Structure of Alpha/beta hydrolase:
Amino acid sequence: MSINSTIVRSLNGTYPIPMEKKWEYGKQNSKWFGYVTVQRFLKTDKQSPSRKELEVLDKANRYWLQVREHKIQYYVWNESVDTNEMILLVHGWNGQTGNFARIIPSLVERGVRVVGIDLPGHGVSSGRYSNIVLSANIVKALTDQIGNPNVIITHSFGGAVASVAQELGVKTEKLIYIAPPSKLELLIQDFSRYLELRDEEIQNMRTVLEKKVKRTMASIDLETIGPKLENELLVIHDRGDFEIPYEMGEAVSKAWKRGTLFSTEGLGHKMILRSDLVREKILGFLTS
Protein backbone atom coordinates (compact mmCIF):
# COMPACT_ATOMS: atom_id res chain seq x y z
CA MET A 1 0.00 0.00 0.00
CA SER A 2 1.42 3.40 -0.93
CA ILE A 3 1.83 6.12 1.68
CA ASN A 4 -0.39 8.35 -0.47
CA SER A 5 -3.36 5.98 -0.35
CA THR A 6 -2.82 5.46 3.36
CA ILE A 7 -2.86 9.19 4.08
CA VAL A 8 -5.89 9.78 1.88
CA ARG A 9 -7.84 7.01 3.61
CA SER A 10 -6.77 8.38 6.98
CA LEU A 11 -7.95 11.88 6.11
CA ASN A 12 -11.28 10.40 5.14
CA GLY A 13 -11.51 8.83 8.58
CA THR A 14 -11.42 5.22 7.43
CA TYR A 15 -7.81 4.29 8.14
CA PRO A 16 -6.39 5.58 11.44
CA ILE A 17 -2.82 6.77 11.37
CA PRO A 18 -0.92 8.80 14.00
CA MET A 19 -1.20 12.58 13.63
CA GLU A 20 2.60 12.87 13.71
CA LYS A 21 2.85 10.76 10.54
CA LYS A 22 0.14 12.81 8.82
CA TRP A 23 1.93 16.01 9.78
CA GLU A 24 5.26 14.76 8.46
CA TYR A 25 3.66 13.72 5.18
CA GLY A 26 1.62 16.90 4.86
CA LYS A 27 4.69 19.11 5.31
CA GLN A 28 6.22 17.36 2.30
CA ASN A 29 3.08 17.48 0.15
CA SER A 30 1.40 20.88 -0.05
CA LYS A 31 -1.64 19.37 -1.79
CA TRP A 32 -2.61 17.57 1.42
CA PHE A 33 -1.23 19.94 4.02
CA GLY A 34 -4.47 21.92 4.25
CA TYR A 35 -6.38 18.75 5.10
CA VAL A 36 -3.83 17.69 7.71
CA THR A 37 -3.82 21.10 9.44
CA VAL A 38 -7.63 21.25 9.49
CA GLN A 39 -7.80 17.77 10.99
CA ARG A 40 -5.32 18.80 13.67
CA PHE A 41 -7.22 22.06 14.29
CA LEU A 42 -10.56 20.25 14.72
CA LYS A 43 -9.26 17.31 16.80
CA THR A 44 -10.62 17.34 20.32
CA ASP A 45 -9.02 16.22 23.55
CA LYS A 46 -11.80 14.63 25.60
CA GLN A 47 -11.70 15.52 29.29
CA SER A 48 -13.24 13.28 31.94
CA PRO A 49 -15.48 14.90 34.57
CA SER A 50 -14.01 15.43 38.03
CA ARG A 51 -15.49 13.67 41.06
CA LYS A 52 -17.52 16.76 41.96
CA GLU A 53 -18.72 17.15 38.40
CA LEU A 54 -19.81 13.52 38.33
CA GLU A 55 -21.83 14.03 41.51
CA VAL A 56 -23.87 16.69 39.71
CA LEU A 57 -24.13 14.76 36.43
CA ASP A 58 -25.34 11.65 38.28
CA LYS A 59 -28.42 13.57 39.46
CA ALA A 60 -29.60 14.07 35.88
CA ASN A 61 -31.48 11.74 33.57
CA ARG A 62 -29.24 10.78 30.67
CA TYR A 63 -30.33 10.28 27.08
CA TRP A 64 -28.79 9.59 23.70
CA LEU A 65 -29.52 11.57 20.56
CA GLN A 66 -28.59 9.95 17.25
CA VAL A 67 -27.86 12.42 14.46
CA ARG A 68 -26.54 10.59 11.42
CA GLU A 69 -23.27 8.98 12.56
CA HIS A 70 -23.09 11.05 15.73
CA LYS A 71 -24.19 9.54 19.05
CA ILE A 72 -24.77 12.47 21.39
CA GLN A 73 -25.18 12.36 25.18
CA TYR A 74 -27.47 14.90 26.83
CA TYR A 75 -28.57 15.39 30.43
CA VAL A 76 -31.86 16.59 31.92
CA TRP A 77 -32.38 17.87 35.46
CA ASN A 78 -35.87 18.54 36.90
CA GLU A 79 -37.44 16.49 34.14
CA SER A 80 -40.47 15.59 36.27
CA VAL A 81 -41.07 19.17 37.44
CA ASP A 82 -44.13 20.90 36.01
CA THR A 83 -42.52 23.91 34.36
CA ASN A 84 -42.46 25.68 31.02
CA GLU A 85 -38.99 27.08 31.65
CA MET A 86 -35.92 25.37 30.21
CA ILE A 87 -32.25 26.33 30.27
CA LEU A 88 -29.77 24.80 27.82
CA LEU A 89 -26.07 24.53 28.70
CA VAL A 90 -23.44 24.43 25.93
CA HIS A 91 -19.85 23.82 27.04
CA GLY A 92 -16.58 25.00 25.49
CA TRP A 93 -13.88 23.37 23.38
CA ASN A 94 -12.49 20.22 25.01
CA GLY A 95 -15.09 20.63 27.74
CA GLN A 96 -18.21 18.72 28.76
CA THR A 97 -21.49 19.38 30.56
CA GLY A 98 -19.91 18.76 33.96
CA ASN A 99 -17.99 22.03 33.59
CA PHE A 100 -21.20 23.79 34.71
CA ALA A 101 -21.36 21.78 37.96
CA ARG A 102 -21.02 24.83 40.20
CA ILE A 103 -23.92 26.55 38.44
CA ILE A 104 -26.36 23.68 37.81
CA PRO A 105 -27.57 23.10 41.42
CA SER A 106 -28.68 26.73 41.74
CA LEU A 107 -30.55 26.51 38.44
CA VAL A 108 -32.23 23.29 39.56
CA GLU A 109 -33.28 24.94 42.83
CA ARG A 110 -35.14 27.58 40.83
CA GLY A 111 -37.46 24.83 39.59
CA VAL A 112 -36.55 25.14 35.92
CA ARG A 113 -35.70 22.25 33.62
CA VAL A 114 -31.97 22.21 32.90
CA VAL A 115 -30.53 20.45 29.85
CA GLY A 116 -26.84 19.96 29.08
CA ILE A 117 -25.34 18.50 25.92
CA ASP A 118 -21.95 16.94 25.24
CA LEU A 119 -21.07 18.21 21.76
CA PRO A 120 -19.57 15.90 19.10
CA GLY A 121 -16.09 14.74 20.07
CA HIS A 122 -16.62 15.89 23.66
CA GLY A 123 -17.60 14.30 26.96
CA VAL A 124 -19.11 10.88 26.35
CA SER A 125 -20.51 11.76 22.93
CA SER A 126 -19.00 9.95 19.96
CA GLY A 127 -16.23 11.20 17.73
CA ARG A 128 -12.73 12.63 17.95
CA TYR A 129 -13.35 15.81 15.98
CA SER A 130 -15.74 18.73 16.15
CA ASN A 131 -16.45 22.14 14.65
CA ILE A 132 -18.85 25.02 15.22
CA VAL A 133 -21.24 24.33 12.35
CA LEU A 134 -21.50 20.60 13.09
CA SER A 135 -22.11 21.32 16.78
CA ALA A 136 -24.72 23.97 15.95
CA ASN A 137 -26.60 21.47 13.81
CA ILE A 138 -26.52 18.99 16.69
CA VAL A 139 -27.94 21.63 19.06
CA LYS A 140 -30.67 22.35 16.50
CA ALA A 141 -31.49 18.63 16.30
CA LEU A 142 -31.74 18.49 20.10
CA THR A 143 -34.13 21.44 20.28
CA ASP A 144 -36.20 19.89 17.49
CA GLN A 145 -36.70 16.96 19.85
CA ILE A 146 -37.09 18.65 23.25
CA GLY A 147 -38.23 22.16 22.31
CA ASN A 148 -36.58 25.57 22.36
CA PRO A 149 -35.02 26.76 25.63
CA ASN A 150 -35.92 30.02 27.33
CA VAL A 151 -32.26 30.62 28.11
CA ILE A 152 -28.96 29.36 26.70
CA ILE A 153 -25.85 29.50 28.89
CA THR A 154 -22.52 28.84 27.19
CA HIS A 155 -18.80 28.81 27.85
CA SER A 156 -16.16 29.82 25.31
CA PHE A 157 -16.60 27.91 21.99
CA GLY A 158 -20.17 27.17 23.09
CA GLY A 159 -21.09 30.81 22.47
CA ALA A 160 -20.21 30.48 18.80
CA VAL A 161 -22.12 27.20 18.61
CA ALA A 162 -25.23 28.75 20.16
CA SER A 163 -25.05 31.75 17.82
CA VAL A 164 -24.86 29.63 14.67
CA ALA A 165 -27.62 27.36 16.08
CA GLN A 166 -29.88 30.42 16.30
CA GLU A 167 -29.20 31.15 12.65
CA LEU A 168 -30.35 27.59 11.98
CA GLY A 169 -33.64 28.24 13.77
CA VAL A 170 -33.11 27.71 17.50
CA LYS A 171 -35.17 30.24 19.47
CA THR A 172 -34.41 31.61 22.94
CA GLU A 173 -35.28 34.69 24.99
CA LYS A 174 -32.00 35.20 26.84
CA LEU A 175 -28.36 34.34 26.30
CA ILE A 176 -25.50 34.15 28.78
CA TYR A 177 -22.13 33.83 27.07
CA ILE A 178 -19.17 33.23 29.39
CA ALA A 179 -15.82 34.08 27.75
CA PRO A 180 -17.04 33.94 24.13
CA PRO A 181 -14.79 34.30 21.07
CA SER A 182 -15.73 37.16 18.75
CA LYS A 183 -13.70 36.43 15.62
CA LEU A 184 -12.80 32.86 14.73
CA GLU A 185 -10.10 34.09 12.39
CA LEU A 186 -8.13 35.17 15.47
CA LEU A 187 -8.22 31.60 16.77
CA ILE A 188 -6.90 30.34 13.44
CA GLN A 189 -4.08 32.89 13.61
CA ASP A 190 -3.16 31.77 17.14
CA PHE A 191 -3.13 28.14 16.00
CA SER A 192 -1.00 29.05 12.99
CA ARG A 193 1.53 30.98 15.09
CA TYR A 194 1.83 28.08 17.51
CA LEU A 195 2.67 25.72 14.63
CA GLU A 196 4.74 28.33 12.79
CA LEU A 197 2.71 28.02 9.59
CA ARG A 198 3.61 30.07 6.53
CA ASP A 199 1.04 32.42 4.94
CA GLU A 200 0.47 29.99 2.07
CA GLU A 201 -0.16 27.15 4.52
CA ILE A 202 -2.59 29.26 6.56
CA GLN A 203 -4.57 30.16 3.45
CA ASN A 204 -4.62 26.51 2.38
CA MET A 205 -5.93 25.54 5.80
CA ARG A 206 -8.60 28.27 5.74
CA THR A 207 -9.80 27.17 2.29
CA VAL A 208 -10.15 23.54 3.37
CA LEU A 209 -11.87 24.51 6.64
CA GLU A 210 -14.44 26.72 4.92
CA LYS A 211 -15.10 24.00 2.38
CA LYS A 212 -15.66 21.50 5.20
CA VAL A 213 -18.15 23.61 7.18
CA LYS A 214 -19.69 25.13 4.02
CA ARG A 215 -19.38 28.62 5.52
CA THR A 216 -16.82 31.39 5.42
CA MET A 217 -15.09 32.04 8.73
CA ALA A 218 -16.38 35.63 8.75
CA SER A 219 -19.98 34.45 8.40
CA ILE A 220 -19.85 32.57 11.71
CA ASP A 221 -18.17 35.34 13.70
CA LEU A 222 -20.29 36.43 16.66
CA GLU A 223 -19.78 40.03 15.60
CA THR A 224 -21.47 39.12 12.30
CA ILE A 225 -24.35 37.12 13.78
CA GLY A 226 -25.07 39.28 16.82
CA PRO A 227 -26.69 42.27 15.07
CA LYS A 228 -29.27 39.93 13.52
CA LEU A 229 -30.55 38.70 16.89
CA GLU A 230 -33.12 40.41 19.08
CA ASN A 231 -32.68 38.46 22.32
CA GLU A 232 -31.03 39.80 25.46
CA LEU A 233 -27.39 38.89 25.99
CA LEU A 234 -25.21 38.94 29.08
CA VAL A 235 -21.49 38.45 28.42
CA ILE A 236 -19.32 37.50 31.39
CA HIS A 237 -15.58 37.74 30.77
CA ASP A 238 -12.47 37.93 32.89
CA ARG A 239 -9.97 40.70 32.18
CA GLY A 240 -7.12 38.22 32.67
CA ASP A 241 -8.41 35.55 30.29
CA PHE A 242 -5.37 34.37 28.31
CA GLU A 243 -7.26 31.84 26.15
CA ILE A 244 -10.05 34.06 24.84
CA PRO A 245 -8.94 37.68 25.36
CA TYR A 246 -11.23 40.01 27.29
CA GLU A 247 -11.51 42.28 24.24
CA MET A 248 -13.40 39.52 22.44
CA GLY A 249 -16.10 39.42 25.08
CA GLU A 250 -16.29 43.19 24.95
CA ALA A 251 -16.80 43.07 21.18
CA VAL A 252 -19.50 40.38 21.45
CA SER A 253 -21.48 42.39 24.00
CA LYS A 254 -21.43 45.40 21.67
CA ALA A 255 -22.54 43.34 18.67
CA TRP A 256 -25.93 42.59 20.24
CA LYS A 257 -28.61 45.28 20.29
CA ARG A 258 -29.45 44.24 23.85
CA GLY A 259 -26.02 43.13 25.04
CA THR A 260 -24.34 43.89 28.36
CA LEU A 261 -20.90 43.01 29.72
CA PHE A 262 -20.00 41.90 33.24
CA SER A 263 -16.27 41.90 33.91
CA THR A 264 -14.38 39.82 36.47
CA GLU A 265 -10.82 39.89 37.76
CA GLY A 266 -8.45 37.04 38.56
CA LEU A 267 -10.63 34.15 37.38
CA GLY A 268 -9.14 33.45 33.97
CA HIS A 269 -10.83 31.27 31.38
CA LYS A 270 -11.87 28.22 33.41
CA MET A 271 -12.10 29.27 37.04
CA ILE A 272 -14.77 31.74 35.96
CA LEU A 273 -17.21 28.80 35.85
CA ARG A 274 -16.53 28.06 39.53
CA SER A 275 -17.04 31.58 40.84
CA ASP A 276 -19.83 32.32 43.32
CA LEU A 277 -19.90 35.89 42.02
CA VAL A 278 -20.50 34.68 38.47
CA ARG A 279 -23.19 32.26 39.62
CA GLU A 280 -25.02 35.05 41.46
CA LYS A 281 -24.76 37.32 38.41
CA ILE A 282 -26.30 34.59 36.27
CA LEU A 283 -29.17 34.06 38.70
CA GLY A 284 -29.80 37.78 38.87
CA PHE A 285 -29.92 38.06 35.09
CA LEU A 286 -32.39 35.19 34.87
CA THR A 287 -34.81 36.90 37.26
CA SER A 288 -34.41 40.43 35.92
In short: The chain has two domains: 3-43+187-210, 51-183+221-287. The chain is about 45% helix and 15% strand. The two ends are 64 Å apart (CA to CA).
